[in-house]
Amino acid sequence: MTDLRRDTRTRVMQPARMVGIVGYGAYLPRFRLPASEISRVWTEGQSSLPVQEKAVAGPDEDVVTMSIEAARNAIMRAGVDPQDIGAVWIGSESHPYAVKPTATIVAEAIGAVPHTQAADWQFACKGGTEAMQAAIAFVGSCMSDYACAIGMDTAQGRPGDALEYTAGSGGAAFLLGPADKSVAVVEGTYSFVTDTPDFWRRSNANYPQHGQRFTGEPAYFRHITSAAERLMDEMGTGPQDSDFAVFHQPNSKIPGRVGRYLGFTSAQLEVGLLAPEIGNVYAGSALVGLTAVLDSCDPGDRGLLVSFGSGAGSDAFQLRISDQPLDFPDVVPSTRDYLERRTTIDYSTYTRYLGKLALE
Amino acid sequence: MSTIQDVFVIGTGQTAVGEHWGISLRHLAWKAVKQALESSGLERPDAIFVGNILAPRISQQHNLGTLLADFCGFRGVEAITVEASGASGGAAVRQAMLALRSGEIGTALVVGVEKMTDKVGPEVTAALAAGADSDWELVQGVTAPAMAALIMRRYMHDYGVHRDEFSDFALNAHYNAQANVDAMFRNGLDLKQYVQAGIVASPVNIFDGAPDADGAAALVLSSEPGELRPGLSVRVASSSLVTHTLALHDRRDVLSFEAARLSAERAFQQAGITPDQIDLAELYDRFSIYAVLSLEACGFARRGEGWRLARNSGVGRNGQLPISTFGGLTARGNPGGATGVYQMVEVTRQLAGMAQDNQVAGAKWGLAQCLGSSGATAVTHILDGTNRN
Amino acid sequence: MEISRHWRLQQQRYGLLGEKCNHCGEKLFPPRDVCPECTQDSQELYRFSGKGEVYSYSKVFDPPAGYEGTAPYTMALVKLEEGPLVTAQLTDVDNDIVEIGMLVEMVTRKLREDGNRGMLVYGYKFRPRLK
């Protein structure tokens, strides 16, 4: 075990050739369940509400369909031939099949098959950024020019549990490619991982278990702050160098708290903070926040993306937006378009859509 | 044309349409067959043609031709099943016509039989929907009523027709069914009930659609004239089966039943008469909109105007063109592959003056037309009760 | 389960992959071996844009087996920009806002599932255009 206080080696990862985001796409389903509905059903309205509402997948949606749409958005923005995509990697903790890849279905649908890598990733809420790191390595080592990394979830929470207020549906897809074709270059990335059992779901369980307050300090805070500080430290940057910072968003407040602890201002955090409107979309949480940033950032902006996955670990990325104004065809829905497309549902409709009613 | 053998209906039989929980498929068929044979005086047909759709799926029974030949006491007789979705009954009659007209056989027994109730609920809905294109329609979750609804909605849009304008078809059918002891719905229907009815597939409500049920009907056809009543014989003046696209979306014109139009056109040509000479028509009114499009396809109404014909009792027994004279599919009920045979039985009884309280006075020419797969297959027969022969 | 039946149509179902007739130029969906317009049998693959408009629609309250989970749902005939009509469900839509002529776009969604253990079948549906 390394003594972190004495570790002076370079830990930040940078590929042999520089890699960046050449296209990105968000997806959020249209249904919203207000947190007040859950409170009404389970606590007679007495509980405090960690988010305003959460995004809920419709009955014909799952991680496959949502990933397909996000990936199509990313490909359309990038203008890349899907046949040039060398990997389709999807991080999620709600893959529709326990055995049978989500990624093959998505790769088939976006037209990337058959000359492609495809795999599913799983690391609680950081499966998506893991896929992104691997894609950076894949492109950075010249094994392929393009790789698609997706973080997407239809998050599960036990009815009545604190998690149910926030566990939402959505995520984003990123097409990684050579830096010179990118809208945002990945300047460096770093991962911080320990065995911390703050949250888990056993193989055949319907809902996850969590350590309640144990999920805070030793899990979320420690991993995010360690990852962010080490990355900035080695890159020689600080919060003042960032125009934006996006952290994993389990609820409305915690990302702000961890951000302020690290020295970021609310202005740097607010654009990418979507949890109040969509809840915690697990593996898609930080990534969909980043899409909102990319929708509105300025040329030359710099910022930080830090995920958190229970179990536990954080992946941190320092990104620099291209100096050229982002010039995407206006055919792809923005993250704001998805946020504004909303239909409120009640708790009973929600239980039906999420298959929580025993029908057999 | 003169070399073609004439064909006559010499016997008819049918069971009540409904939920025959206690009667199996073979017993149901036998009831209709027995009646038809007795009324014809024939002891043994040269061939048997069975119209059926769902037995392989619902009763796990293929080869009804042989089953029924055996069960009805006709081992050794040629027998096959004919399937053309909702047009199966008419298609079985058509096959019998081809055989009789060729001179190869002299008598034929046609039996339409359907046993829906061996399964219930969504499985039957799925089985009935399977007349649609399985790869490109069924997989999307279409149902038979949904197909009709897609056509009806577009019809309403293109011709500016309100959905309640379709009520006259249901009202007429339910009125006529009251006097038909074999009909499924015999309580009549009023406009208020129609307007307030539950929706099956918008805009189709439960009274726009026919109830799918059990039933069997049989015909004895012969190349020799036989009297159904003293001095009364009924000749099958024409017979035509036409296909068009199976899938609704493949039609250039969704609002025209092309198969029905061509089939009727050929039937009128063969019979040497025109639509205005028809005294009654048993059309495939499985849905109100199908009755409308059938009227237009057969030349009884101009395009976009079929719905007007039902106004002011125009399709009633004393109207301009009586249809669904025993209740049609809408109220007599729709026993799937038996329906086309019921239609032939009904038209025959009208022309022979045997329709009792359902009689259309002085009927001489009648038309029976059934459709399969939302109008993809159409079978038209014109019957001649003028006793010219 | 009908694994191979659904598997062999994936390309067409996931992304509206149809054909274009080499003889008369007709765009065909679903793909066929013989062009219905000119009855010739030479076609090349053609990917449809997925844009179209509602030609007709119906909300289905009485679903067939396998589709109970999402009923009631809206069926439609969609007229694709390239010409063909397609039968498909509308999704992300409330029936009361659907109208003939409404602009829609293709999305890939779950069409059906055979219970908790069976295969998932994905394919095209249409929704009101987002952009």
Oligomer: heterotrimer
The major beta sheet of chain C can be summarized as: 5 strands, antiparallel
CATH class of the largest domain in chain A: Alpha Beta
Shape, per Cα inertia axes of chain C: globular
Unreliable spans of chain A: none
Structural class of chain C: mainly beta
Sheet-strand content of chain C, in percent, reads: 35-45%
Number of helices of chain C: 2
Task: Give an overview of the whole structure.
The complex is a heterotrimer of chains A (360), B (389) and C (131). Chain A contains eleven helices and 14 strands. By secondary structure, chain A is of the alpha/beta class. In chain A, the strands form three sheets. A nine-stranded mixed sheet of chain A has the order 5-4-6-7-1-8-13-12-11, with helices on both faces. The radius of gyration of chain A is 19 Å and the shape is globular. The model of chain A has no long low-confidence stretch (mean pLDDT 95). In chain B, 32% of the residues lie in helices and 17% in strands. Chain B has twelve helices and eleven strands. The two termini of chain B are 16 Å apart. The radius of gyration of chain C is 16 Å and the shape is globular. The termini of chain C are far apart. Chain C is 8% helix and 43% strand. With 131 residues, chain C is mainly beta. Classes of the chains: A alpha/beta (360), B alpha/beta (389), C mainly beta (131). The interface between B and C is large, with 38 and 38 residues.
